[in-house]
Amino acid sequence: MQMGLFDKRYTTMKKFPFNWSLKEAIFTKDKGKVFSCFACGGGSSMGYKLAGYDVIGCNEIDPKLVDLYKANLNPKFAFVEGIQTFKLRSDLPEELYNLDILDGSPPCSTFSITGSREKAWGVEKKFREGQVKQVLDTLFFDFIDLAFELRPKVVIAENVKGILMGKAKAYTEKIHKEFALAGYHSRHFLLDASKMGVPQRRERVFFIAIRDDFDKALLYNLDLSFNEPIIPYSAIRRDEGTGDVSPQPSTITLWGMCDAGRSLDTVHPKGYFFNNYRLSKDKVVFAITGKHKNLMDSDVCRVLFKEELLAAGSFPTDYDFGTQKPNYVIGMSVPPVMMANVADEIYKQIISKLC
Hints:
Elements: H1 8-11, E1 33-37, H2 43-50, E2 54-60, H3 63-73, E3 77-80, H4 83-86, E4 101-104, E5 124-125, E6 134-135, H5 139-150, E7 154-160, H6 169-181, E8 184-192, E9 203-211, H7 217-220, H8 249-254, E10 277-278, E11 295-296, H9 306-312, H10 326-331, H11 336-349
Helix pairs in contact: 2-11
């Protein structure tokens, strides 16, 4: 495949194509107002904008990521602080009250099936230099406290699949209880981005809540079934591209030891390469992570080009990463096209029917 081209069979047939640009996108802003918490680089916000919402601002603890958000999305409001203090503010703009959607992706590494899980629960942690320490597994409840204060019509919160597994199920149950105490009916859905027009197999849990003065049948009848054909790696693969594509030195040693689509953990005696994959051209790309160069080409000893990462994450081709690494920002973000599909259905099935 020539440099600069993606398989047109997959770039033109979707309602929200993965190959898009901020410059050329038309954001109608006619579906309602959204405010995003734990906004990172704006993955979910770009999804809402694609679906026609007016995203008026964000809250994010990392100043470097807020700078990215501002550079790419130009929000009206941008609050750089932890949600623990943000939820207590008495000077929030009137526009943040009675929103159509309050959005959030509470940090979820403590629930990830590839993370520390129970060992990290209740422990103060920070993601990276410049951030303050936080107890990550309680941030979801701070987010619900904010919903109680702002009283949005709908709350959407995204998290990892691991929150539904093992002892973490108790957190899921508590989340629903806290939503009820805050005055919301809630449900959760396990969704896969690869079934939503995203060239990446990324399973995420979406908690959807509506204020309890609205008809709860709208929520309980909500259908978030997506069955788009998968977009294989071959559709986004390039022969040339940009970015640092050198694999970790130890990965080179293992290069010939694993078949396409097989985790390197199965051939490494100490398991250091769990969640690192050599891709298969006829299968969808595995989930991009923020920490490692975990996805490697099927034929050439390299990790993905920047252009391939953008496509797999459904990030706009002209997104300005500044000094940040694309794999970090994309790996930490909700794929915009994934959120666009969810937000589109929420509008059609719930928001458009609210009195």
